[in-house]
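Researcher: Here's the sequence for the chain we discussed earlier.
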Amino acid sequence: MRKIFTFIAALAATLCLSAKETTLWTGNEPISWNPEVYQGSQFETPEGIFTGLQKDYIIKVSVTAALDEPQYVLTYKAGDSWEWTDLTTTVEDGTMSYTVASGQIATEIADRGLIFRGQGYNITAIIVDDNQPDEPEQPEPLQPGEEKVLWSGSETLAWNEVAQQDSMTATLLGEKDQLIVTVADKGSAEWPKVLLRDKASNQVGDDILLSDIEDFPYNAMFTLTAANVEAMQGGFKLCGDGVTVTRLVLKKYKEEEQPVVPAEEYTDTEVWSGDVAISWNPEAYQGTELDTYSIRQDMLAGIAKDDSLKIYYAEAIEDAQFALTYKAGDEWTWTDLTVTNHEGFFAYKVASDEIAQDIADHGLVIRGQGYHAIRIVIGKPQSTEAIEDVSEDTLPSAKVLKNGVLYIRYNGQLFDVRGQRIRL
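Model: Thanks. This is the structure I predict for it:
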């Protein structure tokens, strides 16, 4: 029977004892009520050593047996008459214990002490334990962007079984954090998946379908919502139909500083408009992806390094995901681009001449989840180099209409009507 893998070891904090033990007395007193059988006597505790004793505290006495069948008796002086009264104790592993049963008894022991009686044992220490429950030590909080390996090993997962959930440390997880699962082998199932489930066996986020993945190890990533974090406080588990995983990493969310793309510093040209619902998981959100090459192969011709590709969107759902992919190199390998999200559009600044050429030749694929792509715009950066006295009247020039914008051509270069040289 395949097993579900439940993660707890690296998530649960090491327990530290919050219970406080205080040693009140040490020595070596032989106890005997029949000196002919064992040489000793009864022992009365020093005055005042139990000051502050409370109900439910545990009095622990270290004892050493001197006879085969020692008799352990612990007595206090009860009531107004100070009547000697035996207390019910347990003796285990060299310790005689008594849990204070009431506030009245606690007061009387604090005021009057205890008397050890019985036969054939020695007492060597008296300790009071405040009997507070053990509490987990909270882990050091992780910093934004920090990664923590929660588990490493090798486990083959199943998805159709139910396992008891275990508790985890709540402070480790936060909204928008990522749990990254390294998959070593997708197995032989027809639809291999990795799923993340909370303590109630509800699925967390979209399942990661591995059918089309060929390059392993592969990192499957789950981004947590606030609802996920709350539901996972009692634990979580990974599931997968025969999928083998080797590592689990928590990556704390860090809000990236997004560069501003001022509209006035770019000359924008719209190259496409429409309305396409974008989704890489149609079961969760009805949609598809948008490949510019399939619409018009030359749509992005003329794009250059430092240009800004802007994808305008509408009807974005909460936690929508925005992604751009281009087809790199001679093999047209799909490669992700790092985008920045702005209000109403997300953008990519072309990082190199090579990437620009690939995009011009092969197009872009607009991907993600939960929004409608409505416009594709190319932003050309405007030069800040001013040319003195450049105008249509003073220079031998020609008017040029390009992409609906009027320019002046002079000495093989283009200038706008303000005399700013334009780099196209």
